[in-house]
Design a protein that fits this description.
This is HNH endonuclease. It is a single chain. By secondary structure, the chain is mostly helical. The chain has 10 helices and 2 strands, in the order H-E-H-E-H-H-H-H-H-H-H-H. It has a two-stranded antiparallel ribbon.
Length: 274
Amino acid sequence: MARLNPRTDTIRALFARSGNQCAYPGCSHELINSKNKFVAQICHIRAASLGGERYDAEMTDEERRGYENLLLLCYAHHVETDDTDAYDVDSLVAMKAAHESLFEKDDFKIDEAALHQIVAEMARYWDDIERLNTLEHSHEQLSFRVNVQGTYAEIFESIHASLKGIERLHAGLLKADEALQEQFESMLSRKGIDPSIFEDVPYYENPFQIRNWETHHLGFPNWLQRARIDLAHLELKYLEEYLKTHSKDRQALSRLEELKASFAEMAQHATHID
């Protein structure tokens, strides 16, 4: 998958805690100059794509372009920090934290014109995605549609709907496996075979009686619960960052409070089925 550009809100949050200065210790190089031009770079702590510095295969594309993985550096120090022996992940994370702590109360406001200049590439990227997903899809009749204009709320709603779809599929599989023993006995009877000849077979050795029992009663429920917890956690983290720059968004504030309560409940009471 192609690298994803940072979101507008993420860039705005980065600048809000930047003091309009390079994050490298002791560097006061401006990020936005007197002509309102962006004269620095948005840098990834862990690389945005395979082959880059400090690439982490375990990260998702969203995590790679997330606030925690980005910092603002002047050109010279961006090149310097490409030295992974001298600048590992921990050192860059510490650099970012130390720099932002200096400007917690400064709240630098980036000019919207400059912001739009910075995110123009991202806009072009999403236009390309829409074109690839519609006009140039390799299998148009069977394609999964990507809503490139979808808000975070719509995307999370789609994920919740997908989880419910998986639950419905599982319910159907469970019902089919539970009926397997009866169907097997019915088939034997139709062929003149007395099903009672299998009565001496212990239930735990009968492949029709406990078909996929652990998968249905342990595997599916535990993985679905894990997915719900991770999804709630992800949404909370997103809202936490989003509201730093959109503190008056009532819908987001309401959703945050709702999620905080439900996630606290999960944290305290969610258990593995064993």
